[in-house]
Amino acid sequence: MIIPTPEDVRAAADTPQYYKRGVRYFEQGRVDHLEPGGDGVYAVVTGQDAYQVRLWWEDGRLAGECDCPVGADGWFCKHCVAAGLAWAEAGRFFEEGQPAGGPPVPPGPAEVAAAVAALGPERLAEVVAEEARRNSAFAALLVARAGLLPAPEPGQIERVRAALARAARGETWHPWRLRDRFARALGELRLLVHSCAGPQVVALVDEFAAVWEEACEELLYDEEDPTSERIAGEIAAELEALRAEAERLAGG
Fold this sequence. Notes:
Elements: H1 6-12, H2 16-27, E1 31-37, E2 40-46, E3 50-58, E4 61-66, H3 69-72, H4 78-90, H5 109-134, H6 136-145, H7 154-168, H8 175-195, H9 199-216, H10 227-249
Antiparallel strand pairs: 1-2, 2-3, 3-4
Helix pairs in contact: 1-4, 2-4, 5-6, 7-8, 7-9, 8-9, 8-10, 9-10
């Protein structure tokens, strides 16, 4: 995977204003989720709402799409800029190995356990609170682990259902196109699972899994190319994990 530089992100931004605002969003920790996908990444960036972003390379240039009003018109918006800068910073960890003399790999479980023991309860609480103020995704996880998540509002459930309905429309035989269409809806579902709790959330994950399974029935499977089977399995596995998490948070 080719990792962009901040200069690549600046060049992709459609206006200097979008770049400047995107830098501010990145520095404020508004990129709540980032994951590799295909030749690019998927991200969730929080502005007035939680927006789904996809970035990829096209003809040697960074390209992107976002479901915010500006991104919907085809612009490389501030959310794309923030996601691009997050990719530039964290993208090296998406690679399988590190070059000699390159950046260090993230600390492992032993190092984390040692750091927790060295900090002690009081300092650890300060570090956790500070990170929660900076990172909204971590704050949501903290509230979830404390069992303090609220029940979802009807509008939150309908938002996911609307995204799922849009994903289910159209031809589904090409695996990457299918994954791209469902990526936004899956991002909405992740946000819901990590910000709300209750039987409605568990039921919604089951509903999503059923729609995904039906969509996968139209994929073209080729014994010599396992792409379709792999993508179908990856999403199914993530949905299974999300269901387990939703069930745990619901007290099931």
